[in-house]
Amino acid sequence: MAVMPFVGESHGAAVEQQELHESLVDPRVGLSTLAAQANVDFSNLPLDATVEAIAASGTQGNLAALRSIAAGKPMTIADAGRIYGRGIMCPQVVGTADDVADQLADMARATGIDGFIISPAFLPDTFEDFVTQVVPVLQARGLFRRHYDGTTLRDNIGSLPAAL
Questions:
Q1: Phi and psi dihedrals of 131, rounded to 5?
Q2: How many domains does the chain have?
Q3: pLDDT per position as a tens digit, 14-72
Q4: Residue 158: predicted pLDDT
Q5: Residue-wise pLDDT tens digits, 82-122
Q6: Peptide bond before 124: cis, by omega within 30 degrees of 0?
Q7: More confident call, 158 vs 163
Q8: Is-contact 7 14, C-beta < 8 A?
Q9: Which of 17, 56, 85, 153 could form a cystine bridge with 6, CB 3.0-4.6 A?
């Protein structure tokens, strides 16, 4: 499961990072990715058209998810582009290192997944924040390894922990 973490020294600082990220999203960025996945040419649709106007021959799951997010209310193609551009609809986890670790642990328990793909909002900052702040918390809780047994990926791929 992919997640997009926003980690701050305080919850408010993390929310500020998330808000900055969201403010930078141009709907056309999200639409370019959605267009490729759903096999849709958005160039002939106005940005103020609703997602109901989208007829796609490609992947339908993401369009269905957008329609579900809209919950029966009109959602414009621009809105869909912004939502998709914020992180291709992967969950965002926001807060202090402890908050983010709690959220990841809860998601792992609820879904039975055994790992996460960290989707960066900002490079390299998102990875650095996650590695320096969240990973030590996960390690202290026994949810993330402290070392690898082997010296190569091939040596270690079979020894991934089941907890996270």
A1: -65, -40
A2: 2
A3: 999 999 999 999 998 889 888 888 888 888 889 998 887 777 776 777 778 887 887 77
A4: 67
A5: 988 888 778 999 999 999 999 999 999 999 998 899 998 88
A6: yes
A7: 158
A8: yes
A9: 17
HSE, side-chain direction, 13 A CA sphere, residue 39: 6
SS3 116: coil
Residue 89 vs residues 61, 84, 98, 119, 145: alpha-carbon distances, Å: 11, 6, 23, 11, 28
Contact 103, 136 (CB under 8 A): no
- Whether 157 is covered by a domain: the verdict is no
Structural domain that includes position 105: 2-23+90-149
Half-sphere exposure of residue 104: CA atoms within 13 angstroms, side-chain side: 31
Q: Report residue 76: phi and psi, to 5°.
A: -80, 165
Is a pLDDT exceeding 80 seen at residue 162?
A: no
136: enclosing H helix or E strand = helix 135-140
Cα distance between residue 144 and residue 104, in whole Å:
11
Q: Tell me, what's the pLDDT at 128? A: 95
State the Cα–Cα distance between residues 42 and 48, nearest whole angstrom: 11
Assigned token pair, 138: 């996960």
Exposed / middle / buried, residue 8 (Cβ in 10 Å: 0-12, 13-18, 19+): buried
Report the pLDDT value the prediction gives residue 161, as an integer from 0 to 100: 59
